[in-house]
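TICKET: design request
STATUS: open
ATTACHED STRUCTURE:
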């Protein structure tokens, strides 16, 4: 991805700046109490930067999946309070989905002030990327800033459509996400090891594929290890094998000498006959998985092998837990990875919703170099895809007017 203009490249004093943030945060079920505000915290540097330079800040985000209708439970109103607390200032809120009203609300704020708009996905034009909706949005400001990395894989109006109507640049969070992920993918300090796990091989096979081009080693774990193991002829009991991907998995394993990557599979696993937290379980070599057993974590011997590889590495990209880490019996593999990479002198980049949850469960967030705020977006980035919300921003050497049609 080419270098993009950022908030640092625009003159915002006295200007209205529309900032797309990712306030799609989790709530305690049935309440309007935010259970994890990381994404709000991550947006603060850009907001503070713009306020400090005399801009009026208009914030927009989506929350959940209202599918083009106003759903009170998915209002962004509860976020306003948290934001006001963090920024220690009053935040206006525009609760309307009518653009004349929104215009009026926005016109009332002055430089140094912030207004938060209601859920973008209450508007039918958001997810369909309707040009009329993008145009209406663009009339609210003089610049557009994308700081919503977690939504940048969506070609939606407030992410992509709007960039056709306003000079559009990256926010500080987006810039940091791109820089960290790109550094690892394009110019990693070696040895560079990728650790890939998670539930489904279908979700991750393209990531394995893309990383096999640059990584020195790839350590495989999680549910998807079953398909990889099975592709080498190993019987994996009642573990889920995604038949459609056996051929691809086998090819990746066999091609690995050509692409200079070594793809490492578990040699032992923790198995159980039931997918639940309390049933009996045991450890066995991968060659001895019983007919009724499924693999739920990597085993102790595998953990030793993976720990050794990681202790020799300089850069680690980690996506996907090694086992069902939510349950104690199957959390050791994931804990081992988290502990092994949480050390000085290692560049550690974490992507994927559950992987981030695991790192925070083990209390190791502060020990990692970069924790991505985007699940799906970071996955697509690691697959080597261009994200619509990033490619559509102005290139570093492009002038403001270029590509802006209205
Ligand atoms: P991420 O969100 O980090 O990208 P995924 O969504 O791919 O990760 O997978 C996370 C889920 O995979 C977790 O809920 C975890 O319990 C599950 N998982 C990991 N290993 C296994 C396994 N061996 N069998 C079944 N589920 C697994
Ligand atoms: Mg996930």
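STATUS: resolved
RESOLUTION: sequence designed for all positions
ATTACHED SEQUENCE:
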């Amino acid at each position: 991805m080419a270098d993009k203009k950022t908030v640092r490249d625009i003159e915002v004093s006295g200007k209205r700046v529309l900032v797309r943030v990712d306030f799609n945060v989790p709530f305690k079920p049935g309440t309007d109490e935010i259970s994890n505000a990381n994404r709000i915290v991550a947006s603060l540097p850009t907001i503070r930067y713009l306020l400090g330079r005399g801009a009026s800040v208009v914030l927009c985000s989506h929350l959940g999946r209202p599918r083009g209708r106003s759903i009170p439970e998915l209002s962004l109103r509860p976020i306003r309070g948290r934001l006001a607390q963090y920024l220690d200032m009053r935040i206006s809120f525009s609760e309307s989905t009518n653009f004349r009203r929104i215009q009026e609300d926005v016109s009332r704020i002055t430089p140094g002030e912030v207004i938060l708009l209601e859920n973008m996905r209450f508007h039918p034009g958001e997810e369909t990327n309707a040009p009329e909706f993008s145009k209406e949005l663009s009339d609210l400001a003089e610049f557009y800033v994308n700081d919503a990395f977690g939504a940048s894989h969506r070609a939606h109006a407030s992410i992509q459509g709007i960039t056709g109507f306003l000079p559009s640049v990256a926010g500080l969070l987006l810039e940091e996400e791109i820089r960290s992920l790109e550094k690892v993918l394009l110019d990693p300090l070696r040895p560079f090891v990728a650790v890939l796990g998670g539930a489904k091989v279908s979700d991750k096979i393209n990531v394995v594929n893309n990383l096999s081009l640059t990584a020195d080693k790839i350590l495989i774990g999680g549910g998807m290890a079953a398909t990889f193991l099975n592709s080498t002829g190993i019987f994996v009991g009642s573990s889920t094998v995604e038949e459609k991907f056996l051929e691809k998995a086998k090819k990746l394993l066999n091609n690995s000498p050509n692409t200079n990557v070594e793809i490492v599979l578990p040699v032992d696993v923790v198995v159980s006959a039931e997918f639940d937290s309390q049933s009996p379980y045991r450890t066995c070599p991968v060659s001895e998985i019983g007919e009724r057993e499924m693999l739920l974590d990597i085993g102790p011997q595998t953990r030793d092998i993976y720990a050794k590889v990681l202790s020799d590495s300089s850069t680690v990209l980690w996506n996907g837990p090694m086992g069902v880490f939510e349950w104690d019996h199957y959390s050791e593999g994931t804990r081992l990875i988290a502990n092994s990479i949480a050390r000085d002198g290692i560049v550690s980049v974490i992507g994927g919703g559950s992987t981030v949850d695991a790192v925070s469960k083990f209390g190791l967030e502060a020990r990692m170099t970069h924790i991505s705020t985007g699940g799906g977006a970071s996955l697509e980035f690691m697959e080597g895809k261009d994200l619509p919300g990033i490619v559509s921003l102005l290139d570093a050497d492009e002038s403001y007017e270029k590509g802006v049609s209205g």
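CLOSING REMARK: The chain has 14 helices and 15 strands. Residues 38-52 form the longest helix (15 residues).
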